[in-house]
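Annex B. Sample input.
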Amino acid sequence: MKTGAEIKEYYDEFSKSTFLRDFRIVNLRQQAIRKLCDRFIAPGARVLEIGCGAGIISKHLEPRVSRLVGIDISETAVKMARLYVTGDKCEFRALDVTGDADDLERQEKFDAILVPDVLEHIPRERQRALFERIENLLGPRGIVLITYPSPEYQEYLRRSRPELLQVVDETLRLSEILAITSLQPRYFAYIDAGEKNQYVHLALAPAMEYSPESPSVDFGGKVIRRARKTLWRFRNEAFLRKVKNAF
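Annex B, continued. Sample output.
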């Protein structure tokens, strides 16, 4: 098992090379993460980004959030993020969320917690501690967005391209994630990022009691819904007459 110091040292060096490449070449994986954030993070949300890297996703989120805290184990990455994202709504800290983030829990809860391609780089033995931290930081109606390599892609890399794996690179499966958290799945999808089914996007949220209420629909939506109902009845009128005559 790699120590926190060894992992930090690795990502300090990693930041100087790999993170900078994303400013020269469009990263399809990050574009997919932006779409995920746009879908699930509401305007004005308080957001925690675990593994903020050089701040590319943070920069995308800045205009729509009320507050964003980005944390990364790498001090080098955090320095880059502070240079890249200069708005006063964003704050960046160098810390290990599984070990030295107690002060975060003393602040207000977050509406959304983003874990973008980070979970696989946390040793399996520490992942339960990470989810305990996340659950303590998340508001009662908050959402957690997690992206990670699909298990099939990860096993392909392990067999065929091990040089692309990082210092810690676990294979993650949904069943194993759900076994170490009380959070419940709200969304799950395989995502293409240059190659088919490379990544998984997962949204988790606290368990909720069912509330029997109708979803809000605007006037245009109501008109469309009524038209579809009418068309459905019209299409099936002949069949219903056949059934009535048959019985």
